[in-house]
Design a protein that fits this description.
Immunoglobulin-like, globular, 7 strands
Amino acid sequence: MSCTASASISNRRVFWYQQKEGNPPRYLLGYYSDSGKHQGTGVPDRFSGSRDDSKNAGYLTIKGVLTEDEAHYYCAVWKDDKHSDACL
């Protein structure tokens, strides 16, 4: 799935979150580059990120989609790699 920003995502991280019905959002991953990525705690590696700076777009790929993956997915773009698995 894709997430397109209204401004440049260059030098920014793209973060992805999953929210299942009745639950708070869960941090999935943060993606800057193949060598600059962070997988959330307990998130399977079938969830992966990529990006296309020329389109101001981030992408979330789920390999071998399962019924348990049914959820709303959200992205966020931020200037650094600060993140938290905590739900406030």
